[in-house]
Amino acid sequence: QVQLVESGGGLVQAGGSLRLSCAASTRTFGSLAMGWFRQYPGKEREFVAAISRDESTTDYADSVKGRFTISRVNAKNTVYLQMNNLKPEDTAVYYCAAAVPIYSAYAPLAESGYEYWGQGTQITVSS
What we know:
Strand content: over 45%
Distance between the termini: 40 Å
Oligomer: single chain
Structural class: mainly beta
């Protein structure tokens, strides 16, 4: 079982930056692909970013490309999401997710590709 705990959420003005962290309670963090998703009220969760276990692959939703960066530090069992130039439409609950990948460079883009989820953290961007 893998437990994921997000932190770093909060309120920020448009144009500002935040960094989300997701700490995993597992000795096998280095074998997991990691992703970030977000959810608007009344909507399905949507893909934001993903990183493969070997860090060779990163993927981003078109809406965040050039503004968000996903990274990981396996020695700290932590994945990060650096969010710059935040916009009001980035306001959502952000979830960290972990997947057991089928190969090292694989980073799922679909919610169904992930087995483990964090509890979510709220990001609010004011205009």
